[in-house]
């Protein structure tokens, strides 16, 4: 949930014409709404032990809204951000209302009988492939951070977990928190590289992707 709450606004807000201050406000709003949704789901919903956060399935439709010609013609970036955000909010409200109607009317349960793994796997694959050019090339912008993150995530979730000591039921740490552990470790690693001057003489694009002091999220937050 934390990853989607940060990654989705970081990817979409600049395309909408938003600044770092707009980005941090969107992140704060997404975190707050995710907490409210999780609380409602735990009290009145299915009561599953899950955290309700942002979904990457909406990224592709949102990108089409952002690239709408009527919005792209707005000269002022801040005004374009506001108008685009309103359009996205309206679209999400309509889409969510439709999902609520389908869920409470039990139509999804009726139609789900006709779905099979052979039919759903291509749909999920298309969503993932549609986001490939947005996610994976970003690893190449900072290979010294991206590659260790990928290797560590694969190692913790797919290799270390199956060792006898870590596979015990009383220590399911790497089964439940591989992403959180990897993000924490790699962030500390990035801070060390930044403080050590590893990127002092690198190109601006590399510094923006690798340095931990270029996001401006903490300084732009309206505390």
Automatic annotation (TrEMBL):
| Statement: the UniProt record of this protein carries the keyword Transcription | no
Q: How does it sit in the membrane?
A: Multi-pass membrane protein
Tell me where the transmembrane regions lie.
Answer: 48-66, 87-108, 114-133, 145-165, 177-199
Q: Which GO terms describe its molecular function?
A: transmembrane transporter activity
Check the record and name the Pfam families matching this protein.
Xan_ur_permease
Where does the UniProt annotation locate this protein? Answer: Membrane
Q: Which GO terms describe its cellular component?
A: membrane
Keyword Transmembrane helix listed? yes
Q: Which family does it belong to?
A: Belongs to the nucleobase:cation symporter-2 (NCS2) (TC 2.A.40) family.
Q: What is this protein called?
A: Nucleobase-ascorbate transporter 1
Organism encoding this protein: Ensete ventricosum
